[in-house]
Specification:
The protein is α/β, with parallel strands linked by helices. Helix content is 41%, strand content 20%.
């Protein structure tokens, strides 16, 4: 741990990167997966459990927390870390994506976005300065610039307009953020599925000399090969000595292929959301625990796992809980999925350290392709 934000690149293996981020509240081993704690909770999980899975950092959501319990209230209560009992780093997104996707009525201009709350219909204004102010009140460790995320497919002119606006907002966010000791603000590369716009966005953000850079506006409906192509175009333009964060991604396969191209940080609701709907991610691929084939199967999901949810509960019991709509089913499967994601990240980090990431990737994909174990 250090008094300031510091990223150290320990080793590269082809495109894959092994490193660590040091901050006053802890060290983040990269490549890292950040569980999503949208409203101050990783759904269906105790944060002690989240930490035990291997998570070094979690994500909070500016949009949701500004609406309730409000950033000002969180600040009066001692900040988000104290309120939720998580002493380690927290990254907060800017709220821009949720404003665009959840607010049925919004007006966007150069100054920011005016929108109605999806909770109670109250009117709010989010400017770049206000976004940074809210994230400061929450006392988050890594704060994201306000950007405009355009859903794909979209017209090139619309993508370019949003990208240019996001660049201007990045400059304003940098000024508003100032020089906060021990914290960082990341810029967000936009540009949709147009390589030239992605490159322009990355080049201009790099000139701002920020602590880190995110790639946004992907995993919003485009095919995986488009997402990967945009990474291949974008990442060489970004500074190699700064962390690179792919926002909202993704599946285990997305993560493997993105690490291979040089991504250091990920977040996604998929492990917990899937768990609440009966879907488990395992070393042998996806398992739908709702299927009747599990009704009398006494095997655990993964007897080799260190996670109690994966190792100590039978598929039959998990199947029963999920089919009966018992909350415990979603809790156990969320715990299992987050553990699997963190085990995957640890496997990735070890493989890069040993210079065998390509082999690890091939072996992992081969195991997924075999599919779930058949009953004896």
């Amino acid at each position: 741990m250090t008094e300031n934000f510091q990223f150290t690149l320990r080793r590269t293996d082809a495109g894959a990167r092994l490193g660590e981020i040091s901050m006053p509240r802890g060290t983040i081993r990269t490549p890292a997966f950040m569980p999503v704690g949208t409203v101050g909770t990783v759904k269906a999980m105790y944060l002690d459990q989240v930490r035990e899975t291997g998570a070094d950092i979690i994500l909070g959501n500016t949009y949701h927390l500004m609406l309730r319990p409000t950033a000002e209230r969180v600040a009066r209560l001692g900040g988000l870390h104290s309120l939720i009992r998580w002493e380690h780093p927290i990254l907060t997104d800017s709220g821009g994506f949720q404003v665009m996707s959840l607010s049925g009525l919004r007006k966007l201009d150069e100054q920011g976005v005016t929108f109605k709350s999806h909770v109670d219909g109250s009117l709010h204004h989010m400017s770049p300065e206000r976004s940074i102010e809210i994230q400061g009140l929450l006392d988050s460790d890594i704060q994201m610039q306000l950007d405009e995320c355009v859903a794909l497919p979209a017209e090139p002119r619309e993508i370019e307009r949003a990208m240019e606006l996001s660049l201007r907002w990045a400059e304003r966010c940098k000024v508003a953020f100032g020089n906060q000791l021990g914290k960082a603000m990341f810029g967000i590369v936009q540009g949709g599925d147009i390589p030239a716009l992605r490159i322009r966005s990355a080049e201009e953000l790099a000139q701002l000399d920020l602590k880190g850079y995110a790639v946004g506006g992907l995993a919003v409906g485009e095919p995986q090969d488009v997402m990967l192509k945009m990474l291949e175009e974008t990442l060489p333009v970004l500074p190699g000595d700064k962390p690179r964060y792919l926002m909202g991604v993704g599946t285990p396969e997305d993560i493997l292929k993105s690490v291979a191209r040089g991504i250091d940080m990920f977040d996604c609701v998929m492990p917990t959301r899937s768990g609440r709907h009966g879907l488990a991610f395992t070393r042998r691929g996806r398992v739908n625990i709702r299927n009747a084939r599990h009704a009398e199967d006494l095997r655990p999901l993964d007897e080799q796992s260190n996670c109690p949810a994966s190792r100590d509960y039978s598929r039959a019991y998990l199947h029963h809980l999920v089919r009966a709509n018992e909350a415990l089913g979603g809790m156990l499967l969320s715990w299992h999925n987050l553990s699997y994601y963190q085990e995957l990240m640890q496997g990735i980090r070890t493989a890069i350290a040993e210079g065998r990431f390509a082999d690890f990737m091939a072996e992992t994909q081969e195991e997924w392709a075999k599919g779930d174990l058949e009953r004896a």
